[in-house]
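Exercise 3.2. Students should predict the tertiary structure of the chain below and write it as structure tokens, then compare their answer with the key that follows.

Predict this chain's 3D structure.
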Amino acid sequence: MTSIAKFSAIAASLLCATTAWPADFQVKRSIELPSSTLQVWQLIGDFCDIDDWHPKISSCALKVMDGSLARVLTTDTGAKVTQKRIAREEGLSYTYKTVSSSLPIENLTATLSVQPGENLLIEWIANFSSDDPDMESVVVDDIEAGLSAIETILASR
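Answer key:
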């Protein structure tokens, strides 16, 4: 084996051994409530009303990004997060993609939906990648805080 071939083999093995690939995560949480679809959708359905019900969001501003509706959120810690709405089923769901955030998360896409039934099911599913395994619990905490707030608000009505 030539010295160039040996060097290439060693370099390739080191690259494979030292490259950290992001892990893929899915967070899925839901709650069932004795509420109507209309009542819940009036609370959560407007893409930028999240600051009215999510305890970790202090403000929301809408803008158009690449021809799609986007929201710029300010969190309770002052961080800015930009999310672009990529799908919507009126009265039932919307899906968004996070396009900028200070968190070490990539490719976060999430759907917030309501599903009618004997009890109304509110479901929030997020898929993302991250090199930091602690990000899964951060996303879980954010989603659970939002669902808990929805439940509390609707119970008081």
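Discussion points: Residues 2-19 have pLDDT under 50 and may be disordered. The domain at 23-155 is CATH 3.30.530.20 (Alpha-D-Glucose-1,6-Bisphosphate; Chain A, domain 4).
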